[in-house]
From TrEMBL:
Name this protein carries in UniProt: Iron-regulated membrane protein
InterPro entries reported in the protein's UniProt record: PepSY-ass_TM
Entry keyword annotation includes Membrane: yes
Keywords per UniProt: Membrane, Transmembrane, Transmembrane helix
One Pfam family matching this protein: PepSY_TM
Originating species: Silvimonas amylolytica
Regions crossing the membrane: 20-44, 153-171, 192-218, 347-368, 389-414, 420-440, 449-469, 481-504
């Protein structure tokens, strides 16, 4: 790589970049591990939704005529729903149309299908919602999304500073993976290689993650500083595809759902509707916003406005025919979640998500190893506790998410509140793992938690096969490839965790004795206490 000319960097500047990279990485690393591991799974959220909803597997796909019947029945049973009624199409739910509306009496959102018209506050597929919440807010209900926005900013700083640190050695050491007795150098090489190769994607994740998480905060700032409190009204006009005209109070015949979908398809043949929002249904001013995706587009999400009386297209915000606001928002979302392609892109993002989780995990290990006392059995308190936290948070996350999958199937089989039960299982496993990591020496905790994580992860296909009858040996023959894919990935991940447990056990037996990963029975004492004694 002689063609790569890198400008020289002074030692003081390099130390500044190194300090910035180290502390931004440490401050954000554990949160980013959680976000990347959960985000890798969120890429396959449609497949996970089908895996969770066992009742929909093999069900006959409902038609637009069924969707029209659902609209009419929900409106008849819940007249307040005509103000705004949302409809998810079978492509999003697996087999059935699902209607959503806000019930003012219950002060909560309700959903219904043709089989269950009475309404329920429980979502039809909660597991994907829960895992995505872990991804963008760590599962913290209040303030979590803003916290992750700040973490994303730190993440961007760590990426830029890391690149500047290794830029002088980039041409020489980029593809170096120097295995040997010096494990720190091997971890450093792997950390650098993954970071540099996946840098473009990580920059995308950092920028779009910060934008999506801090979107509301940014708007509030602009609203106060530049728009004199008028931004929200302007935002609605800029981003909606419906006019928001109040109901006229005059009943009118509505365009049926099959015709609505046909007219939007005629507007752009590549546009596939996934959901609708109906406003003032049954009124002369009724409108619909049809949401969907456009094939062969980097920013596939789009919306089409339709007048429900005469069927005319009132607004179009789809690929190739939209303004910069819609294009930017759609592009940010699709590039962050990898929804601009089919399974090849999804698998790429899945691998990148796992590699990103490894990047932050290895960064913590490098910090711990850099502070190792080579000639003293007793190590510093900070590296020791960082090792405990790294083991507990990382393996607790992996085990907790696997437990949520098992809890989703088990809760449904036992007739429990599935969303509540899967959260209970997930958080219980996470905090148990965290407790174990601070109770046992880090190397022992890591080995046992890796074995436990492998077992819980293997319980994902086991629970699905036992509780639904859709075993891995049968689902491919039935054409249930999404179900098979989830079970197969869980099986492979379980094997991976068990292999890591073997490697950690080998480290315990044959590794350097003077390390936080050695068999220490208790955390090191404070230097002051030792001197006093």
């Amino acid at each position: 790589m002689r063609w790569l000319k890198v400008p020289s960097v002074s030692a003081a500047t390099l130390r500044l970049y190194t300090t910035l990279h180290t502390w931004t990485g440490l401050c954000a690393g554990l949160a980013l591990f959680v976000a990347f591991y959960a985000g890798a799974i969120t890429v396959f959220q449609d497949d996970v939704a089908i895996w969770q909803n066992a009742a929909n597997r093999g069900s006959q796909m409902e038609t637009p005529a069924d969707g029209q019947r659902l609209i009419e029945k929900v409106i008849a049973a819940h007249p307040d729903a005509k103000a705004r009624l949302s409809l998810q199409l079978p492509e999003e739910t697996g087999a059935h149309y699902v209607a959503w509306w806000f019930d003012t009496a219950k002060n909560d959102w309700q959903n219904a299908t043709l089989a269950h018209l009475e309404g329920s506050a429980k979502p039809s597929s909660d597991l994907t919602i829960f895992i995505n919440a872990i991804h963008y807010s760590l599962g913290i209900p209040v303030g979590g999304i803003y916290f992750m926005g700040v973490v994303s900013v730190l993440y961007g700083l760590a990426l830029v500073s890391g690149l500047l640190i290794h830029l002088p050695r980039l041409a020489k050491d980029l593809l170096a993976l120097r295995a040997g007795k010096n494990l720190k150098r091997l971890w450093q090489d792997a950390h650098n290689l993954i970071g540099v190769i996946s840098l473009p994607f990580h920059m995308i994740f950092a920028i779009t993650g910060a934008t999506l998480c801090l979107y509301g905060t940014i708007l509030m700032g602009f609203n106060a500083l530049a728009y004199d409190g008028q931004l929200m009204g302007k935002m609605n006009n800029a981003l909606d595809v419906v006019s928001g005209t109040p109901a006229a109070g005059k009943p009118a015949a509505m365009l049926p759902l099959p015709e609505i979908l046909a007219r939007t398809k005629a507007q752009q043949p590549d546009f596939d509707a996934t959901a609708l929002s109906l406003f003032n249904y049954g009124d002369a001013n009724a409108e619909a916003a049809v949401h969907g995706n456009s094939e062969r587009s980097l920013a596939p999400y789009g919306n089409i406005g339709v007048h429900l009386v005469d069927g005319r297209i009132t607004n179009t915000q789809i690929a190739g025919d939209r303004d910069i606001n819609h294009a930017t928002m759609s592009g940010a979302y699709s590039m962050h979640f990898g929804t601009f392609g089919h399974y090849a892109v999804k698998w790429l993002y899945f691998v990148l998500g796992l590699m990103g989780a490894f990047l932050f995990y290895s960064g913590n290990l490098l910090w711990i190893e850099s502070r190792r006392k080579h000639r003293a059995a007793e190590q510093g308190r900070a590296p020791y506790h960082m090792a405990q936290a790294t083991v507990g948070v990382c393996l607790g996350t992996c085990m907790g998410i696997s437990g949520a999958f098992v809890g989703a199937q088990l809760g449904a089989a036992l007739g429990l509140d599935v969303p509540m039960f899967e959260r209970l299982v997930c958080y219980t496993l996470f905090f148990v793992a965290l407790g174990v990591s601070f109770w046992l020496p880090p190397i022992v905790a890591a080995t046992r938690l890796l074995i436990a994580t492998a077992v819980v992860t293997w319980c994902v296909p086991l629970a699905n096969g036992v509780l639904t009858g859709d075993q891995m040996l049968l689902t491919p023959w039935r054409g249930q490839w999404q179900v098979f894919g989830v079970d197969a990935v869980a099986t492979l991940l379980g094997a991976g965790f068990l292999y890591l447990a073997y490697l950690v056990k080998q480290r315990q037996r044959n590794g350097q004795p003077n390390s936080v990963w050695a068999m220490q029975a208790a955390p090191p004492r404070r230097a002051v206490a030792a001197n006093t004694a």
